[in-house]
Amino acid sequence: MEMNELQTLRHSASHVLAQAVKRLYPDTKLAIGPAIDTGFYYDFDTEHTFTREDLDALEAEMKKIAKENLKIERFELSRKEALELMKDEPYKVELINELPEDSVISFYKQGEFTDLCAGPHVNYTSKVKAYKLLSATGAYWRGDEKNKMLQRIYGTAFTNKDELAEHLEKLEEAKKRDHNKLGRELELFTTVDYIGQGLPIMLPKGARIIQTLQRWVEDEEEKRGWQLTKTPFMAKSDLYKISGHWDHYQDSMFILGDENKDKEVFALRPMTCPFQYQTFLNRGRSYRDLPMRLNETSTLFRNEASGEMHGLIRVRQFTISEGHLICMPEQLEEEFKGCLELTNYMLDILGLKEDVYYRFSQWDPKDREKYIGTEEQWAEAQGVMKTILDDLNIDYYVGIGEAAFYGPKLDIQIKNVHGKEDTLITIQVDQMLAEKFGMEYVDKDGTKKNPYIIHRTSIGCYERTLALLIEKYAGAFPTWLAPVQIKLMPIADRHLDYVYEVKKELEKNGIVRIEVDDRSEKLGYKLREAQLEKVPYMLVIGDKDIENNTVSVRSRKEGDKGAMALDEFIAVIKDEIDTKKR
Q: How high is the pLDDT of residue 1?
């Protein structure tokens, strides 16, 4: 079945679901019910909170509706007639009132159920026969937290039961890899209600992975000419008024104080750019100072909507590998290329490169209030960026309205195990903020000019990257990233002295993420537990190992590798760590 046909089937399934809900919960008010890439959903205004048992009952009712083989018929009404028909459905009335005066207002009817809809649909309800209701959750009307919270039911549908079964099997596999579940089971992070949504606690193992990533990123950036800065976590509103964040981003910021009462109002930083510019502004600059590459491991704060929170993927406090590159116009393409090469290198090492795709995020000229600058400035910035992307042969798609308020950007996109798309890494071209901050350099001809600025991350947000790595590797991280790389297991207490000699020798060679499991448990139990913890190597120490100066090696990937000379094992694991082997 073609995708558009499948979308039609899924859209029809959402109507069958809505009909079932109206039958079982007659007072429910209908919102919207579109098909989506993975299935469909429908939003309902009801005092009832849907449970799994309710979803099962709704599935049974949907089955009855399918068996009734109701004809699905389209008809059209005038605006007045449409409003009269939907007078008891406030969300439908709102949608009708927003349609242009001369719109054709179409409806679809199946049995006693009628819904405002542009279609298309299958012709009979009997076509909806392979479906599953997956979950129920809260969702604000039109995604705006100022609106009422509705009940959203997610489902999926296919043309036959075999395709449905295959899809449900994939969903079960995705659940096993879900970082929100697996990350907690592996004790990488946790959350606490009385601390707040979107504020994860990194446990020792998760903190160790992020520390490893951070050191690697900072070292790699230093090799490529980036200079480290350290800037404040907050600033007065004055700074954000210059940058434009106060007018264009304030809803997403945490504000400390009230402008009507306090002389000074502060805000936690949502990004580092206006802070890092002060490094450039610290003294007069000439063309000889450019390009200036400034990087920082930045902790940022964004007031995300509560309904958007998800594990480590969307949080309110996060740490990012942020950088700002200040350059002359003629340096822009080469420096942009260098930023992209850095991100591609890091994605390749992490094993994520094959999973990403590229979006050229542009402004929406129909939404002028969202952006600073003139149409001419946007045309120039987007034209320059298009030339760069085309010269670099970047295979991208265009995202209208996805630009930052001050400039276009290349967003490197990725999907989590559930198919939800997020931005992992961003590289932006900005020709506007330099002028706002009075950033100038003296060119070779003695004239003062505003530089271009490239805003970029190298691996993006560390928390989001960790979430994606958990899902990519199902928690079985490559040795160089693993929070515990080796577990040492003595067979008996008499082997402990040698175990600690082995540990000392490993540490002398820079292998420090080691645990000794000296509990009075059976060896098989300890090995199974280490496998569940996804430790790359387990070294079992017995009498023969002491006699021969060996270690008995068990690999997470390859199983029992037998006895190895300690020097030989050290060489193997050092190579894995140094080359960042996956």
A: 46
Mean pLDDT of 476-485: 97
Cα–Cα dist 261/8, whole Å: 55
Amino acid code (one letter) for 130: A
State how far the Cα of 260 lies from the Cα of 466, in Å rounded to an integer: 41
Helix (H, G, I), strand (E, B) or coil at 415: strand
Q: Could you tell me if 407 and 383 are in contact, meaning their C-beta atoms sit under 8 angstroms apart? A: no
Cβ within 8 Å of residue 352, ≥6 positions away: 414, 424, 468, 469, 472
Residue 504: phi and psi, rounded to 5, are -60, -40
pLDDT tens digits, one per residue of 109-141: 999 999 999 889 999 999 999 999 999 988 889
What tens digit of pLDDT does each residue of 262-320 get? 778 999 999 999 999 999 999 999 999 999 999 999 999 999 887 777 899 999 999 99
- Using one digit for the tens of pLDDT, what is the confidence trace for 353-384? 999 999 999 999 888 888 888 888 888 888 88
Contacts of 568 (CB under 8 A, 6+ apart): none
Phi, psi dihedral angles at 3 (to 5 degrees): -60, -40
Structure tokens, 197: 């949504």
Let me know: does 417 contact 355? Beta carbons within 8 Å: no
pLDDT at 3 over 90: no
Cα 442–454–362 angle (5° rounding)?
125
Give CA torsion, residues 98, 99, 102, 103, to 10 deg.
-160
SS3 content of the chain, % helix, strand, coil (to 5): 40, 25, 30
* Contact status, residue 394 vs residue 441, Cβ threshold 8 Å: no
User: What is the rounded CA–CA span in Å between residue 479 and residue 159?
Assistant: 43
Q: For the chain, what percent of residues have pLDDT higher than 70?
A: 99
